[in-house]
Design goal:
By secondary structure, this protein is α/β, with parallel strands linked by helices. The chain has one domain: 3-Layer(aba) Sandwich (Rossmann fold). It is built from 12 helices and 8 strands. The protein has an 8-stranded mixed beta sheet with strand order 2-1-3-4-6-5-7-8, with helices on both faces. The longest helix has 25 residues. It is globular and about 60 Å long. The mean pLDDT is about 95.
Length: about 300
């Protein structure tokens, strides 16, 4: 069973150690480095990052320099989970039990190109943490649509708006029956830190997905990244939860919505993004309908988990 103690409750409680250094190559307002900075504070120095082709492979800076103060294995787009499986096996053979292998991959390399390797690693119960930072597109290669791109969103390959719904990768991961799954966002750094810390203490496969609003790809001002992340949760466009040993637990503002807190209109989130500027009334209505249906499912799950019979 999973147990965890010592959760932080305020930003001031975060460790002072820094593993994301000055000189990285992220865009202004990029949420990826913010998320990685928090994650590595939770994971500590004894971490090996496996990074496929993605924004982070550029952010870490040009060889032979690096802005990440932990060991890194850069690997092909589709092979991050396979590479991390090799790292985990090597650590086991060397009896290095206190080093954590961590995949740090975008949604393109997780939802699409890397899904086969990810599924295989999870099915085998590989002892690693897989982190997908989800900016809902192939940002590094020119803002193309991915399996994570939501319905109606503009990209360079869906210039009239995407006509299909996005996948729910965390739900696909749930089907692998791993001990820990969580979602997070940089708007709530304490929540992200605590979830990474909890994942570190668990053995087996762990999966964490972090919403990563991208200023150039989503078409919003670089100063609004944290606000965009927070509003995604407050409108229900992004849900915070954990699945611990198969049991779903909703967190933070998402839990408050399920307990009766009014969910803000999703239009407040959509109108801040240029990628949704072209939406017609019928497309907006469809987005709202899909979101409402999703929250009906969450309410059923929440009601079943909080039932007195449980």
């Amino acid at each position: 069973m999973v147990s965890f103690r010592g959760e932080i409750v305020a930003i001031k409680d975060l460790p002072l150690d820094e593993y994301v250094l000055k000189g990285h190559a992220a865009c202004p307002g990029c949420p990826i480095t913010i998320a990685l900075r928090i994650a590595l504070k939770a994971l500590g120095k004894k971490t090996i990052l496996v990074i496929p082709a993605c924004c982070t492979a550029v952010i870490e800076a040009l060889y032979p320099k690096t802005a990440f103060n932990v060991p890194i294995l850069n690997i092909a787009f589709e092979a991050s989970a396979a590479g991390a499986s090799g790292v985990a096996s090597a650590l086991k053979m060397l009896q290095q039990k206190d080093i954590t292998p961590v995949v740090w991959a975008g949604d393109g390399g997780s939802y699409d190109i890397g899904l086969q390797a990810l599924s295989g690693a999870l099915e085998r119960g590989t002892n690693f943490i897989y982190v997908c930072y989800n900016n809902q597109m192939y940002s590094n290669t020119g803002i193309q649509r991915s399996g994570a791109t939501p319905y109606g969103a503009w990209t360079t390959t869906t210039w009239t708006g995407k006509k299909e719904r996005q996948k729910e990768l965390a739900e696909i991961v749930m089907a692998h029956h791993i001990p820990y799954i969580a979602t997070a966002t940089i708007a709530y750094p304490e929540d992200l830190f605590n979830k990474m810390k909890k994942a570190k203490e668990i053995k087996g496969s762990r999966y964490i997905e972090i919403l990563a609003p991208c200023p150039p790809g989503w078409r919003f001002d670089m100063s609004k990244t944290v606000e965009m992340s927070k509003l995604a949760v407050e409108t229900g466009a992004w849900v915070l939860y954990e699945v611990v040993n198969g049991k779903m637990e909703f967190n933070g503002y998402s839990k408050r919505i399920l307990e009766g807190k009014e969910r803000k209109p999703v239009e407040e989130w959509l109108k801040m993004q240029g990628r949704f500027r072209h939406l017609k009334e019928e497309e907006l209505a469809k987005i709202k309908e899909m979101l409402d249906e999703k929250w009906k499912e969450y309410k059923k799950l929440y009601s079943s988990e909080t039932s007195p019979d449980k």
